[in-house]
Design goal:
Blueprint lengths: L1 H10 L3 E2 L2 E2 H30 L5 H15 L3 H12 L1 H18 L6 H24 L9 H30 L1 H21 L8 H17 L11 H24 L5 H8 L1 E2 L1 E2 L4 E2 L8 H22 L6 H15 L3 H11 L2 E2 H29 L5 H23 L7 H21 L1 H7 L4
Helix pairs in contact: 2-3, 2-6, 2-7, 2-8, 3-6, 3-16, 4-5, 4-6, 4-16, 5-6, 5-8, 6-16, 7-8, 7-12, 7-15, 10-13, 10-15, 10-16, 10-17, 10-18, 12-15, 13-15, 13-17, 14-17, 15-16
Length: 446
């Protein structure tokens, strides 16, 4: 153990702005990767319907399958990292695969092949970049939650700029320009990550090699170090995370309408003319509203949680996630009067959609970064990437559900469609509240 500690300390010398320098390496790596992912996602439904001439139902199903499998493969990427390659090499592998996939998106004939590269690349990348944030901090380090908030800002910085750049290039100048810019973003992320290796904590494979060397020395001294088995507490924690994964499926199914049916709403039902009708804002720009609001709202939310903590009234992680689901459901209440306006006059003000995204964003902040932090707190270190992959399985099923829900967009009235989303999200939140006590106990009160 002493050798492992020495290895870790050698990687973590010198903080920057109160956090290890490795946090900022991971921040900018994830920023560029999310720029790549969301840039492509901003164009995907429009590209399928306007260039590939798919029907709305088929485009919605493919969107759900793609965004779903993007979150299915992280489980296997976590296994690959924990047992064979290590987190660092698996992240690099994932980045290379995604860069190739974005380049293939530039050509119609390789559309499905490109999606496969992007799916497997994200599977290798996604769970292993997130867990490396947690590895920079000791288990009892109070900076861990704040570190994940900073890391989440990196995600949304990339998500903010990508529709503005990739979306504009794709919509106005040619789809291949939009996809090419997304590929360039992924390459930039790889460069940052490879350059910053010296600032990262050793991954699980590095620690296992160090432990193996210790075991060999111990054998020479007739000392055998047994492999650690899961304790009852660890098993309960993992079971609680799996239950939360299941309950989160509906959240992601409703939330991911942003890139699906809400993108269609922005394109066909929203008045996007500004400056007296002189200029029409590209529909893809609405997908920058969510990450932009995250920059504004995150400091307010974290300050509010700090105030609640001082009053000893801060909700647990499980409680926050329940609130997030309920807020998500409430966000779509605003779309019902907007749908009535469209039915009467043809177009609704952009403020209805922006208001929906505003509430949706608060719900996201109560669930997504809190869940990432909870995984790194509860999961055993020796299998944290695999558990993070299991966590992302809820996003897999949720994104598949998003595609399925999208098939009702043209079959139901818009008021009925949004009411369905409201009911689903609120029921999910209430279910988490009902199970909050046993879940809180299983996660050690976190």
């Amino acid at each position: 153990m002493n050798q492992n500690n020495q290895v870790t300390e050698s990687y973590l010398k010198g903080d920057l702005w109160g956090h290890p320098k490795g946090l900022y390496v991971l921040f900018f790596t994830e920023m560029w990767e999310r720029f790549s992912y969301y840039g492509m996602r901003a164009l995907l439904v429009y590209y399928m319907m306007k260039q590939l001439m798919f029907t709305q139902s088929k485009a919605s199903q493919i969107y759900g399958l793609y965004t779903g499998f993007v979150f299915f493969t992280p489980f296997f990427g976590g296994l690959l990292a924990d047992r064979i390659l290590g987190q660092r090499r698996t992240v690099i592998l994932g980045g290379v695969l995604m860069a190739i996939g974005q380049c293939l998106m530039m050509f119609q004939d390789t559309f499905y092949i490109a999606l496969i590269f992007l799916i497997f690349g994200n599977g290798a990348f996604k769970p292993n970049i997130s867990t490396q944030v947690g590895s920079l901090y000791a288990a009892d380090d109070s900076r861990r939650d704040r570190a994940f908030s900073i890391f989440y800002m990196g995600i949304n910085l990339g998500a903010f700029f990508s529709p503005l750049i990739c979306g504009t290039l794709g919509e106005l100048y040619g789809w291949h320009y939009g996809f090419a810019s997304a590929g360039i973003g992924m390459i930039a992320g790889l460069i940052v990550y490879i350059w910053g290796q010296k600032y990262l904590a050793p991954d699980q494979i590095m620690l296992m090699k160090a432990a193996k060397q210790n075991n060999e020395k111990n054998k020479e001294n007739n000392q055998v170090v047994e492999k650690e088995k899961l304790t009852t507490e660890e098993k309960n924690g993992i079971l609680a995370l799996i239950v939360l994964c299941f309950l989160n499926i509906v959240f992601w199914g409703v939330y991911e309408q942003q890139g699906n049916t809400l993108a269609l709403w922005a394109d066909t039902a929203t008045d996007r003319h500004l400056f007296g009708g002189v200029w029409e804002m590209p529909a893809t720009w609405f997908q920058s509203v969510n990450p932009f609001l995250i920059f504004i709202i995150t400091p307010v939310i974290t300050t509010f949680w700090g105030w609640q903590a001082r009053k000893k009234k801060e909700p647990t992680s499980v409680g926050k996630m329940a609130i997030g689901c309920i807020l998500l459901g409430c966000s779509f209440i605003l779309m019902i009067p907007a749908a009535k306006i469209v039915g009467n006059s043809g177009l609704a003000s952009a403020w209805w959609l922006i208001g929906c995204i505003f509430l949706l964003t608060i719900g996201e902040l109560y669930l997504s970064p809190v869940g990432l932090s909870l995984v790194t707190k509860v999961a055993p270190v020796r299998m944290v990437s695999m558990i993070m992959g299991i966590w992302f399985l809820s996003s897999f099923f949720g994104n598949y559900m998003a595609g399925f829900l999208g098939t009702f967009w043209e079959k139901m009235s818009k008021e009925s469609f949004f009411t369905m989303l409201i009911v689903l999200a609120i029921i999910s939140g209430l279910a988490i509240l009902l199970l909050s006590k046993p879940l809180k106990k299983a996660t050690g009160g976190r």
